Amino acid sequence: MTSDPTVPGDSPFRTEPSTRDGAPQFVLPLVVRIERAAPPARTDALETAARAVLVMLSDERSIGDGEWAQAVRDWQDARIRKVVRRARGAEWHRAEALPGITVTGKSAEVRVFPPVPLDGWPKDLARLQVSGTDLDDPEPPAEADSSAPVLWLNPDVDMSAGKAMAQAGHGAQLAWWELSEEEKAAWRDAGFPLAVRTAAPGRWGELTGSGLPLVRDAGFTEIAPGSCTVVADHPALRQTPRV
Question: What are the counts of helices (DSSP H) followed by strands (DSSP E) for the chain?
Answer without folding.
Answer: 8, 9
